[in-house]
Amino acid sequence: MASAKERLEHALVVDAIRAALTPLSRALDVPAEPSLHRLPRLQHLSTPIRATLNADATLLQVIAALHPTPAVAGHPRDAALDHIRAHEGFDRGWYAAPVGWIDAHGNGDFIVALRSALVDGGACRLFAGCGIVADSEPVNEYQETELKLSGMQAAIRVRDVGMEAASGAHDPARVSASSTVE
What we know:
The protein is an alpha+beta fold. The chain has four helices and eight strands, in the order αββββααββββα. It has a two-stranded antiparallel sheet with strand order 1-4.
């Protein structure tokens, strides 16, 4: 939590979420400081943001206002998206997309697909990324992305080896991954 780079990156996202939710909310609670959210392979700064929406605000309006955050697209959003479309060279598909459900009453639950996989026949393409800010070190960002991919790679290898063990074949080249750096 002491890294100025990580705190800046996190603050950009929190500020963007606050700005997006303010016009849709009658009450908004944004903690002043982030906490540390630990996962088995990595840890993230976390700021739980709670909003009480205006009576006329819908879940789909909230999703449209929030997606994509600077964490997955950049800041300012419109300029970042234009740059991504012009230079990234591939469609991100479901990567970083809002994924969830909504019922006929407008209730629902959505998450951001920060790590995702596209399975096509016998091939599996993995997607993960990292945030880039002025103080980012390219090697560190690449290593962070590789670390994020490693959990999915391990899960695919376990499944892949298990399936192939039954047939007596194992080809490690069948498992591949793509790193996306935002």
